[in-house]
Request: fold
Amino acid sequence: MSYEAHKIRLIMELRKQGITDKRVLGAVERVPRELFVADAMRSEAYENIPLPISQGQTISQPFIVAYMTQALALGERDRVLEIGTGSGYQSAVLAHLCRRVCTIERYRTLLAQAETRFETLKLHNITTRLGDGGKGWPELAPFARIIVTAAAPTMPSALADQLDEDGGIMVVPVGQPGAQTLIRVRRDDAGFHEERLLDVRFVPLVDGMPQGR
Reply:
């Protein structure tokens, strides 16, 4: 079976799982996931499962990528902050749906690999930064949307504070390993409003920077 056939099967599966936003499905269809996984795992690129990447991280299950993207309710003019570039797959999906993706990664090797993929795919609306994702990107705040691809132990207020006060949305997994919940936070004049979406399993959001990686 070709990559294209596998991709069509995945899109049909995502629809059955409740991904109804045609723009999100179109973005998933346009991004070649096989470029974001290790060569040895390319045969599994369109399976609806997470896969390991380097530095003990993972490329998220396609359903989770699509679900979190759909939950952001992205507009074409939105500027999005992504915490945790990882392989760059989520960034690439977002790049097809908004004006600008600002993505932060703490591992130098992962970021370099992701940047190469963005260049290969000519995704020129992605801005990258090596840094501590928990601190966000205050120089560029506020953001219309924020997506966090690692689980914070508690609601990350430093990131929430970087949301646009006029309807900004953040989607973030919160909790300890084995007890994580995906939360959607909306910000308006009255403050922050949290909504629990579903139980998830993510690698932890770690403070600080690693040494030499």
